[in-house]
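idk why but the lab printer keeps eating my pages so im just putting this in chat instead. protein + FE2/S2 (inorganic) cluster:
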Amino acid sequence: MRGGSDAGREGSGDHLRHKVTITVNGVTTTHEVEPRLLLVHYLRDVLGLTGTHIGCDTSQCGACTVLMDGKAVKSCTVLAIQADGAHITTIEGLASDGQLHPLQEAFWEHHGLQCGFCTPGMIMASVQLLHDHPDPTDEEIRKGLEGNVCRCTGYHNIVKAVKEAARVLREQPAAVSEKA
Ligand code: FES
Ligand code: FES
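predcted complex ->
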């Protein structure tokens, strides 16, 4: 894991750095970062949380989706300094007490992934979706995930997985309210 002093090093002096304090998966740390450092790079390069993926440079694919104060955001569209004081949840923070989150279980059980590249973002976006729609229709799932691109699955099994997770979460709602 690299320290904050390495973040976004090229091309500027220390006087341009901003101190940010961000809680990620329940752990609060402070680092000095360049103002232009994106949240996705902060998570991956500063904190070493590489479960959050980067699949494009146009804010289109959703692979970088995380929860910021309970709302799904594309972390490639947020500056680390904009997350100062925020609570972030990444895919690494979704399981609790050694138990996979119901969405993680359901994606596994229902083959909602193939290469898995889109999966962290899909699952984080689905946490928000199920918070907003605890009993979603297929159409609501497809609409809720339209900002997340999958090149492999054709989406059918993703929809199935999200529906199954919704059913499980309706029976144990604490799991979703804790994370969203
Ligand atoms: S990396 Fe593609 S939307 Fe963020
Ligand atoms: S499983 Fe490969 S991109 Fe979605």
